[in-house]
Input
Amino acid sequence: MSGTAIEITDLRKSFGANEVLRGIDLDVRAGEVVCVIGPSGSGKSTLLRCVNLLEEPSSGTVRVTGVEVTDPEVDIDAVRRRIGMVFQSFNLFPHLTALGNVTIAQRKVLRRGKAEAERTAREVLERVGLADKLASYPARLSGGQQQRVAIARSLAMGPEVMLFDEPTSALDPELVGDVLGVMRELAEDGMTMLVVTHEMSFAREVADRVVFMDDGVIVEEGPPSQVIDAPRHDRTRAFLARVLDPAAARVPGKGSLGNST
Output
């Protein structure tokens, strides 16, 4: 895939009288990692959910890999097969093993046979460092492991774009690094990623661009060296002053996927 992977034009979303998105324009190029930061209630998660129509925009257009997902005639199920989504909560089936959780959508949505689906599931679970947890049920996995199963489930569908909605916010601090390590390796492999995150060290090190949102608008965007380290706008500076922790651990590099925490 080349060119623009996600194209968002004048996107607006209201819930009743509350306008949450106020005219968002944002493009994500194929192979690019864009991190969206900002205070709670700024519209970050709503933006992400509008990209694959989990929320229906009030107006504006969204195109993913050239297909206008906001077209009333679009086959949204076909579009969603191109888009992987990872949420704050893991949304795993408690009665299925890790292998079963990664296999089920392949069989029901993509109509893959059992052997092919399980082969793909084994490959992606190994990719996220869980080759030894195939037979484990979610209750026997840590939060970080459950989130990596959720990432593997999305990868098994062969997406062209991955959306991450604060994927580490529900995790204990000691479990965050392994999930970020998986995401870092996806970025290094060229996956197009739109990531809502509060992990500033990850955004600084992995993002090609950082977008700062506040009150439903994009206040500032640019490379991490600009937006995080030398912000131009008072609102960006005020937000970062509240959230930046100079002592925060840096994102683990290659080799982190083998951890089992």
